[in-house]
Amino acid sequence: MKVAENIIESIAVIEVEGNIDSKTAPEFEKAALASIKNQGQVIIDLSKVEFLSSAGLRVLLMIYRQIKVQSGKVVLVGVSEEIQEVMSNTGFINFFIIVGTIEEGIQTLKS
Amino acid sequence: MADIRIDYYPTHEFEGIKFRRGHPLPFGATMVPNGVNFSVYSSAAISCTLVLFERGAPEPYAEIPFPDEFRIGDVFCMTVFDLDFERLEYGYRMDGPFKPEEGYRFNKDVILSDPYAKVLGGRDTWRAQPNWDDVYPYRSRLAFEDFDWENDHPLETPIEDLSIYEMHVRGFTSHPSAETKNAGTFSGIRSKIPYLKSLGINCIELMPIYEFDEWENSRTNPITGELLVNYWGYSTVNFFSPKAGYAATGKFGMQVDELKTLIKELHKNGIEVFLDVVFNHTAEGDHRGHTISFRGIDNKTYYMLTPEGYYFNFSGTGNTLNCNHPVVRNMVLDCLRYWASDYHIDGFRFDLAAILGRAQDGSPLSNPPLLESLAYDPILAKCKLIAEAWDAGGLYQVGSFPAYGRWAEWNGKYRDTVRRYLKGDPGMIGEMAQRVQGSPDLYSLRGPTASINFVACHDGFTLYDMFAYNDKHNEANGENNNDGANDNNSWNSGWEGETDDPEVNFLRHKQVKNALTILMVSQGVPMILMGDEMGHTQHGNNNTYCQDTEWNWLNWSLLQSNPDLFHYAQQILRFRRAHPVLRSANHFRHYDYVGSGFPDISFHGTLAWRPDWSAESRTLAFMLCGNHAKGGTIRDETIYVAMNMYWESLHFELPILADGSKWHVFANTDMTNSQDIHLIGEEPLLEDQSGFFVGARSVVVLVAK
After folding, report:
1. Non-local CB neighbours of A30 within 8 Å, separated by 6+ positions
2. In terms of C-beta density within 10 A (0-12 exposed, 13-18 middle, 19 or more buried), how is residue B508 classed?
3. Residue B132 CB neighbours (<10 A)
4. Which of A54, A65, B504, B645 has the least C-beta neighbours within 10 A?
5. pTM for the full model?
6. Strands B75-81 and B119-121
7. Contact in structure between B180 and B290 (CB atoms under 8 Å)
8. Which chain B residue has the Cα nearest residue A22?
9. What is the CB neighbour count within 10 angstroms for residue B632?
10. Best residue in A61, A81, A89 to probe B by mutation, most B CBs within 10 Å?
11. How far apart are CA B130 and CA B47, in angstroms?
């Protein structure tokens, strides 16, 4: 798993590549928490993620909780249908805004 | 600060795995900083080994014997570091004597599930072919217990205000007509919440969802060749784990989150969740059964044994959980507390609960410690506790179950009385009068809230089949029609099974409406069986425990074929919720204590104020004075119910209303074409206020306004 961070129009965009499971979740968590430290808004690009385990979902929720304290929002982009289905069945989906592309994500957060 | 505790670091190492002495409590496997704390009790094991697997692996990757100093009392405990919470599967080997005549059945060759496991692997997808040669078929796993409940908490609806809907997770949405994406799962139920709301129930009672094995005792249907399985699931493998095969995400191990999401969503919609829990026996069977967990960990503690070391069989399934043993009692308590606090469960219905009142030698106790502990438990304080107050060993405690002011019961006598009355048996009027009052003859001190009223439940005929079959037709179960009850008190309305005869079919629909009406106007807590609101049939099978077929799957197209039944059920449920006079927490006093001119309840017959209690009578009417609703604290409309189970129509004289109000017709089951029931507030005026004809085998409900 790889995590890359960009700032686009002063929004943190975290791009993840690979599976997020109990082995990789701590690394994802560390990187993600570092990049949202001073950010109210965040976009997480999951288009290169095929599988998100329980542990992975929990890192996403943790990010949501951190951002919420700052009254911000978390937008997920590129979430595969299968991951969306799992997120829907387990209720995690209710905490996030899900859009198709990073551009849409930026628009959503700017509006 | 968190990292400075010295017990966050290992002291021992075995084949590269680091560990240290653990904490004896809580039992089970608990995630702790840097590792997992394992704790398991056995009163007689000589030694214990922790067995660790990578998820799904055929062989364990490590077996760590508990060093002697890690045993505190009779508890083995160890903290192991650097484990993968998600991929880990663990079990135990226990060494000790194999002397069945003394109650010991240790076998260190068997890898045992943890009785306190929170997730169990091995049956992750419903009916997926298991690996029969697996060295460890039911694998203990860890659960993430950090669900985000937001503001949710159990609803704490007063029990008398509930209308319970008994349902099977798989049966509710498995039929293709359910048209739901995740058929037969917790998620599938969630997609049908709008339906449950439109029906008008406010509590679902889930048939067993503790992990069980649908493959247990699987065999072939002698008629169709289809596979027969353990469909109902009254055979627990583990008490703390939800059934993975009931979750769309079970294959990813996310059943805990999926179930909690369902409960949270039901609560948001005002619907409580009860679990049907089976603490009377386990899936390990008798001395010929498999060793899965309890038998190999501490046979003598967990099971009631005969003096020769065989299993007492008060459950009818091979063994009996030794639930009044202090250690087992605590396990049951730990388990219920876990479900109440971690899953926000609102109530529990205890299968064959009379067993929970038996001593370790099987004799009934007058003051059973388990039942008392549950009744007074601080965490369960607001949970509804409901007993199936009998067992398969002949103990029948309806009306006498040790209640401690808390326990309610499935009122089997309500079911039997109403069924016999509906089929036209003579001599039922006196008893019917008791049943519609919340059975004060059974629960004089406990109040009507002790009475869970029902006419049909999963066990027996569906409501529709009760009026379509005289006899059970269980051939497809492969037991030569010897299984299932014979005392169904059913009547086929003139023809056995399906028919085109419009008169027979009209009568059947009318009888379903009669039953639903009586249920909803009775004091106590009504429960209906999934599908009875639309005429679900099991084709005369009264024991469908093994049928994973359309017989058990709710056929949603019945909503189109029996629209009258669904509409009727909806309106009669709404009627109950709209009228507090039907939902009293206390028994009637039979006099006028608010000065309204009428007593709280009065009985009538074809003549007002003159009920016919004679043996040949099939008529009973009663009037509930609206000014006495909820003990006189609320004003409601006055309600009059006339029931005529005679085979001809009869004229009923009405009590005269003194306050200027007039009788209006809410329901008349003898009518067709939407005249059988009316919307609340739109009840038509009764033409002749002095009396009216009630059709043969019909029920009429009037409101005064």
Report:
1. none
2. buried
3. 7
4. A65
5. 0.97
6. unpaired
7. no
8. B86
9. 16
10. A89
11. 30
Give residue ranges of A with CB < 8 Å to any B CB: 21-23, 53-55, 57-58, 61, 85-86, 88-92, 95
Distance (Å) of CA B328 to CA A19, A100, B374, B521: 42, 53, 13, 41
Residue B676: how many CB atoms within 10 A of its CB? 21
Q: Which two tokens stand for residue B158?
A: 């007063």
β-pairing verdict for B88-95 and B28-32: unpaired
CA distance A105 to A43: 7
Tokens, residue A43: 């976009």
- The amino acid at residue B444 is S
The answer to whether ipTM exceeds 0.90 is yes
Please name the residues in contact with B194: beta carbons below 8 A apart, sequence gap of 6 or more: none
Domain ranges of chain A: 2-110
Q: Which stretches of A11-101 are DSSP H helices?
A: 25-35, 54-69, 81-89
| Radius of gyration of chain B from its Cα atoms, rounded to whole angstroms | 27
Residues A64-84 pLDDT 10s:
999 988 888 999 999 999 999
What's the longest Cα–Cα distance across chain B?
Answer: 91
Q: How far apart are CA B52 and CA A7, in angstroms?
A: 44
Rounded-to-integer distance, Cα B657 and Cα B597, Å: 9
Bridge partners of B622, per DSSP, are B603, B641
> How far apart, in whole angstroms, are the C-alpha atoms of residue B263 and residue B154?
9
Rounded to a whole number of angstroms, the distance from the CA of A8 to the nearest CA of chain B is 30
Closest CA to B494 of B474, B473, B510: B510
Q: Is B700 helix (H, G, I), strand (E, B) or coil?
A: strand
Tokens describing residue A21: 């499971």
| B251, closest residue in chain A (CA to CA) | A86
Indicate which residue of B114, B166, B213, B351 is catalytic.
B351
The alpha carbon of B277 is separated from its chain's Cα centroid by a whole number of angstroms, namely 7
How many A-B residue pairs are in contact by the CB < 8 A criterion?
53
* Helix, coil or strand: residue B279: coil
- Phi, psi (deg, nearest 5) at residue B183: -60, 135
Q: What is the pLDDT of residues B358-391, one digit of tens each?
A: 999 999 999 999 999 999 999 999 999 999 999 9
Under an 8 A CB cutoff, do A58 and B144 touch? yes
One DSSP character per residue, A75-103 reads EEES--HHHHHHHHHTTGGGG-EEESSHH
Q: Check if the beta carbon of residue A76 is closer than 8 Å to that of residue A98.
A: yes
For the residues of B457-512, what is the DSSP string, one character each?
Answer: -SSS--HHHHTT-SS---GGGSSTT-SS-S------TTSSS----HHHHHHHHHHH
Domain covering A2-110 in this structure, CATH number: 3.30.750.24
Which residue of A lies nearest to B261 if distances are taken between CA atoms? A91
pLDDT band of residue B697 (cuts 50, 70, 90) is: very high
Q: Is the pLDDT of residue A16 over 90?
A: yes
When the pLDDT of each residue in chain B is averaged and rounded to a whole number, the result is 96
Residue B226 is among the residues annotated as catalytic for this protein = no
Give strand pairing partners of B94: B48
Token look-up 């084949």 returns B15
B chain contacts of residue A55, beta-carbon cutoff 8 Å: 85-86, 144
What structural domains does chain B harbor?
211-238+272-580 (3.20.20.80), 589-704 (2.60.40.1180)
Task: Look up residue B526 and give its amino acid.
Answer: P
Nearest of B582, B620, B260, B690 to residue B430 by alpha carbon: B620
What is the percentage of chain B residues whose pLDDT exceeds 90? 95
